[in-house]
Amino acid sequence: MERIGTCTRSCTGLMSSRAEKASACAFVNRGASTNAGKLLWLFPAMVLCSTLMAGAARATDYCVSASSGSDSNSGLCSTSSPWQTIGTVVSMESRFQPGDNIQFLGGDVWNEELTLNNVHGSSAAGGRITFTSYGTRQPVIDGCPSTGCSSNGPSISACIAADQSSGTGNNVSYITVKGFECRNTSEYGINFRVENAAMPMRGIRIENNYVHNTGPGAFVGNTSKQGPYDDGNYANQLNAEDDTAGQSGGDSFKIVNNIVNHCGGHNCLQVHYDTGAPLVQGNRVGPGCVHNCIDTKGVGNGLTSPAPLVGKILDNYVTCPGCSNSTAAYYTENNYNPSEQITYQNNIAYHAPIAFQAETGGSCSASACAIDAQYYNNTAYQLSQFAFIDSSCTNHTLDIEKNIINTSAVDIQTGSCALVRWSDNDDVPGSLSGVPSIAINDINNDPLFCGTTVNNFANVSDFSPMDSTVSSYGANNKVTSKSYLGAVAGGGPCANVSDFSSMDSTASGYGANDSVTSKSYLGAVTGARPRHRRARIAGYPGNPGERHPASIDHDAAARPIQGRGRRSRSGNRSALSPLAAQ
Question: Residue 246 carries which DSSP code?
């Protein structure tokens, strides 16, 4: 190693000027005449070099613009030299380092698939590699050209993929995919799939994306009579799939604040045998689910010590009017994980066939294949089939508390379950069939949802119960900290007719000279009234058209566990019930 006195080139090479190098070396060489002097000055010199070297690796921002970029550019945002094509981004992936951001211009459209190959961020603070947007709109990945798809359908199988099975992607870790619009694909929307137990996909976050009209038959402009369909390839539109049945040690996928609707293929949103601690939070799913809307299989791990790893399904809003009678808003099964641990809390299922379903899912390929599921503070409203169903209930422990169940029926085979607890729920109507005989402390109150005043239910706040009992009945049940029943805090404020009051002074007085009516204002509601403010509930997108839901940061490292087995991708069905295997 070349030296300047006792100062190495590896350190001085990080300094920006010859004067800095000379000063540093003079500092080191002051004590070089004696061994004691060398030791005295060597330590601060090492600290200086370490500090410089630590600061040398800085995050790089890369920009991509389909409308103004060039693949001959450097791609650096700092020099306004964006790349143009996704193909160039893929070819440059080997240079991406922890902390880098690859930003796509909002509003631009690409007809290419973004495949991720050996892209590795870091679990350290600021160490993620992020694929995201810049500008004020979402970048669009579209499998159809601007003129629309031909009769052959979309040109890409997925918008964004890291799929170890198909060869379109390889191992990735600690990356974020954020803020894209994904549409018109032939198989998947956003697809992360683990096949190699030695290459788990740890630290993956998929957030704030808008995925729609993806999967078989779902593309915009499809004129075939078949429409969206399941082609049998287990094509899930927002897919976090681990096919190692725990051998990878779990991935702990985080799927947060996405909008997924009008899906082809199998499920709209899928987490498959992630035996870490996956999180599905604040997503808005449906309408348009072919099979199930939010589907989880074998997540979490009840055998870890000192505490189990829990899959958490929180603050989601699912609706699926017109879906098949066997479609569930929230579904889970387990036939490869010795002990699934899953919690559903503060979720809404509205205008769907089934709200919550748990099933065995076929023959067990691991010891017990238990399911330990908690259902707390959820709202199930206007369902055509069931609020809760578990028609197999083998080695299942179900804890159902503080929910609002405003629908027709429940079907839980309590005699086959390991344990069922049913407590402090609002069963509406009081004639709700199938409520377990062990139920305690239930009430039968109309929650008086805010949304009934406008017959809307487009916003989460529309599910705020105005009934004073429902709004406070959960205070004595400490299974959660919520004092209310259901997914949304009681007491409004509600959407109201006065929300249509015009605040424009002209519109509020423009009708005064037209005597056809006595009203001085235009429209249905008198002008300049104070408006009711809708509640914004943390973790939820604000309305069906919102494409940039607020980000939630819930990251956690996965802990390694043991497990065996592999799930058949054809999807097993139990002989116990036509609904038993989803």
Answer: T
10: containing domain: 3-56
Residue 492 is assigned to a structural domain of this protein: no
**Residue after which a domain boundary falls, among 194, 215, 231:** 231
Does residue 572 or residue 26 have the better pLDDT?
26
Q: Give a three-class secondary structure readout of 249-290.
A: CCCCCEEECCEEEEECCCCCEEEECCCCCCEEECCEECCCCC
Q: Token pair of 368, please?
A: 């017990």
Q: How far apart are CA 397 and CA 408, in angstroms?
A: 23
The DSSP call for residue 210 is E
- Same-domain check for residues 14 and 38: yes
Q: List own/partner pairs for 226-233 with CB under 8 A and 24 or more apart.
A: 228/262, 228/263, 228/264, 228/265, 228/288, 228/290, 229/264, 229/290, 230/264, 230/265, 230/266, 230/290, 230/291, 231/187, 231/264, 231/265, 232/570, 233/187, 233/265, 233/266, 233/569
529 touches 498 (CB < 8 A): yes
- Token pair 């509601």: residue: 525
Rg (CA), the chain: 28
Does residue 143 contact residue 110 with C-beta atoms inside 8 Å? Answer: no
Alpha-helical (H) ranges within 444-516 are 468-472, 505-509
pTM over 0.90: no
Same domain, 303 and 375: yes
Same domain, 580 and 441: yes
Domain count, the chain: 4
- Do 398 and 362 share a structural domain? yes
Helix axes 18-29, 35-56, angle to 10 degrees: 150
Which helix (H) or strand (E) covers residue 29, if one does? helix 18-29
Eight-class DSSP state of 494 = P
Instruction: Evaluate the omega torsion of the peptide bond into residue 145 and state whether it is cis, within 30 degrees of 0.
Output: no
Q: Do 439 and 537 fall within a single domain?
A: yes
- For residue 183, count other CB atoms closer than 10 A to its CB: 23
pLDDT digits (tens, 9 = 90+) for 229-268: 999 999 999 999 999 888 888 899 999 999 999 999 999 9
User: Among candidates 386, 307, 375, 304, which has minimal Cα distance to 342?
Assistant: 375
Choosing from 199, 231, 263, the residue where a domain stops is 231
Separation of alpha carbons 216 and 232, rounded Å: 10
- Chain segment 121-135, per-residue pLDDT in tens: 999 999 999 999 999
Are the CB atoms for 176 and 132 separated by under 8 Å? Answer: yes
Q: What single letter denotes the amino acid at residue 451? A: G
Residues 178 and 40 in one domain: no
Q: Is residue 563 part of a domain?
A: yes
pLDDT of residue 310: 97
- Give the list of residues 6+ apart from residue 173 with CB closer than 8 angstroms, or none: 120, 121, 200, 201, 202, 203, 204
Residue 397 lies in a domain: yes
